[in-house]
Design brief:
flat
């Protein structure tokens, strides 16, 4: 027996495919822009590592409130990922600037968490306060907008708590990988040096010698 999707089921399946395509294209574009801005390949991965942290909180919030996964939730997740990426950029950019100023990596990470925790928490609290009336169903069309607000609030809570812990840890691991790989990549890209040049220069010198004739 073969089931054929029609109506709302078919529309929802197409929506999820388009949603996955939009998320994938958006992540690749964000990665490309971050590589150009930071002039580093691996550290943008640190910023993108914060994106999955929000999905678990959004799903858990929907599960606890018994709300369905709908189109409004998809819109909320797209908005949520932008906020989470912004918080991660604040941490990573400040840490890199501190390291360029001469501080050690540990001091730079600690200073980044200390200086950037307040604006991150303030942004999260302000966003949650703005979403709260929609989440509890105040106003019209609460059945459509309430799941979106609940998903955003749940994702903000988990991502804010985990970003301040996971992002510095990922930053440290990727920085170690960059320091290990950079010298080896430089040796592979370097051209061969004086050995070949010395071999070529010996030719004309030997050609210019004349043997004495007896």
């Amino acid at each position: 027996m073969h089931l054929v999707k029609r109506g709302d089921t078919e529309y929802f399946g197409e929506m999820m495919q388009n949603f996955a395509l939009a998320i994938g294209a958006g992540v690749l574009m964000v990665f490309a822009v971050l590589v150009l801005l930071f002039a580093r390949v691996l550290q943008p991965v640190t910023i993108l590592s914060a994106l999955p942290l929000s999905l678990g909180g959004a799903g858990l919030a929907l599960l606890l409130t018994n709300r369905p996964f709908s189109i409004s939730v998809v819109i909320g997740i797209l908005m949520l990922m932008g906020i989470v990426a912004k918080n991660s950029i604040l941490l990573v950019d400040f840490a890199i600037e501190e390291m360029r100023a001469g501080k050690s990596r540990l001091d730079a990470i600690m200073e980044s968490g200390h200086k950037r925790a307040r604006p991150i928490v303030m942004t999260t609290v302000a966003m949650m306060a703005g979403m709260f009336p929609v989440a509890v169903g105040w106003g019209g069309d609460s059945d459509f907008r309430s799941p979106m607000a609940i998903a955003v609030i749940g994702g903000l809570i988990t991502s804010t708590m985990l970003t301040l812990v996971i992002v510095p840890a990922v930053f440290t691991v990727l920085d170690d990988i960059e320091r290990w790989a950079a010298p080896r990549a430089g040796k592979l890209l370097a051209e061969p040096g004086g050995g070949a040049a010395g071999h070529v220069s010996a030719g004309p010198a030997s050609a210019g010698r004349t043997e004495p004739v007896a």
